[in-house]
Amino acid sequence: MTLAGHEDSEVAYRNDTHSDREVHFDLKSFQPTQAHSTPVPVIQPPTTSVPSPEIKTDQPISISITSPEIDRGLKVVLKSSTLAITGVATGGSGVAEVLVNGQQAALDDQGQFSSEVLLVPGKNQITVSATDTQRKSITRTFSITREIVKVVQKPDIEIKKPVATVTINTGKYHALIIAVQDYSSREINNLDHPIADAIAIKNILIKRYTFDDKNIVFLKNPDRKTIGTTFNDLRKKLSENDNLLIFYAGHGVWMDDMKEGYWLPRDASGINNPTDWIPNSTIRNYIRALKAKHVLLVADACFSGGIFKVREAFTSPNASIEKIYEMQSRKAITSGSLKTVPDRSVFVEYLAKRLRENKENYLDAQKLFVSFKEAVINNSPNNQMPLYGAISEAGDEGGDFVFVRRQQE
C-alpha cells in the first residue's frame, strides 16, 4: 500500500496478542494529512538464533618429558633430594593446566612446563597430568630413584652418622652478558676477543651450572641506551629470591680528575668526551635498584677495580655455604685494579677454566676467585692483579653469590 500517493487499498491487521478478530482500515476515507499523522504498525519477522559451530579437535593431548631423560629406557638414579621436571604438553583444544604430583607446574604458551619435586630415598613415582580447555586430560607416570645412604655400624654397635649432603634452596639464576668490541668512534680502538670470551662464559653457565638459556640476556655491541633499558627490565623482572650474574667485556676508562671509572658502550664518543660513557656510579645505581638476593659483577675491562668500596672484602673461610647464601650480597670480580689489561684476556681464560673444572656442588664467588687469582698474576704479561670485593653502596650484607653445579646424569 502507498499512503502518501492516495492509492486505494485495504489493510487487514491481526492482533494476535488480544484476539483473533481482523481489523479493517478503509483508506478511501483518509485525508492526506490524516495519512501522515496516523502511525502504521510494523510487524517484525521472528528472528531465529543460529548456534555457533562446535569447535572440535581430533588431536589427542600428549606429554613429552625432556628432563629427566626417562625416554631413553635407562634407570634414573639421583643423589639430590630435589628434582626439576621439565617437558612439553601439546594437543587437544589447548593445554590449560599441567600438574606434577598434584602440584601445578609453570606453563608457557608453547606448552612447555617445569616443576620441582622432593624425593624420598629409594623409589619415587612421578605423575604428570595435562588438561586441555575442554577438561580432557592425560596422565603419564614414571619412576625416579634417589640413592639410599647406608648407615655404617662398628662392631661395638656405635652408629656412625653419614656425612650430610648440603642442600640450599636457591632461587632462579639469571645472567646479563655484555660484550663490546666494535666501536662507532674512530678514536676508540676495536677489540678482538670480548664476544668470543662472552660466548664461552655463557656456554659454561648453561652446560655446567643452573642457568637456563631463557634466563640469559646476551648483548653484543650494545649502545648505552640498550644497556640502560636492559637493566631497567631486570629491575622489574627479578624477585628477591633470584640471583643475577653480570659479565662485561669491553673497554674501560679511568678519569683521574673525576675519580671515576667508565664502561664504553658501542656508541661512546671520543676518548676525551665521557658524555656517552657509562660511569661506575651508574652501574652501582642499576645494581642497587635490583631486587635480586645475590648479584655478582664480573668485569673484564681496564680500570674496572674502581667499582669497589675497598680493594678486597673476604668473608670468613669457615662460614658455611648456607650462611653465605642466606645473607644478601652485591659482589664483583674484576680483571684488574686501576691499570690497563690486555685484549687477549688471561683473566677470562682462567675464570672459564676453573668454572669448567669445578667439582663442588656449591661454589661461592670468593672461593672461585681464590682458585684462579694466582694463575692470572703469574701468566699475564703485566702481572695483572684481579680483584674481588663488595660493590660500594649497592646493598651488600656480607653474603656471596653461589654457583650451583648441575647434577650430571
3D structure, described in words:
This protein has 409 residues and is α+β, with helices and mostly antiparallel strands. It has two domains: 62-146, Immunoglobulins (Immunoglobulin-like), CATH 2.60.40.10; 173-404, 3-Layer(aba) Sandwich (Rossmann fold), CATH 3.40.50. Helix content is 19%, strand content 31%. The protein has a six-stranded mixed sheet, sandwiched between helices. Strands 4-11-10-6-7 form a five-stranded mixed sheet, with no helix packed on it. Strands 3-5-9-8 form a four-stranded antiparallel sheet, with no helix packed on it. α6 crosses α7. It is globular. It starts with 9 loop residues before the first strand and ends in a 5-residue tail after the last strand. Residues 1-23, 33-38, 155-164 and 309-314 have low confidence and may be disordered.
The N- and C-terminal alpha carbons lie at a distance of 89 Å
What's the number of extended β-strand segments? Answer: 24
Q: Structural class, judged by helices and strands?
A: alpha+beta
Assign a percent range to the helix content.
10-25%
Shape: globular
Low-pLDDT residue spans:
1-23, 33-38, 155-164, 309-314
CATH class of the largest domain: Alpha Beta
| Total helical elements | 7
**Integer average pLDDT:** 80
Any guess at the CATH architecture of the largest domain? 3-Layer(aba) Sandwich
C-alpha Rg (nearest Å): 35 Å
How much of the sequence lies in strands comes to: 25-35%
Structurally, the number of domains stands at 2
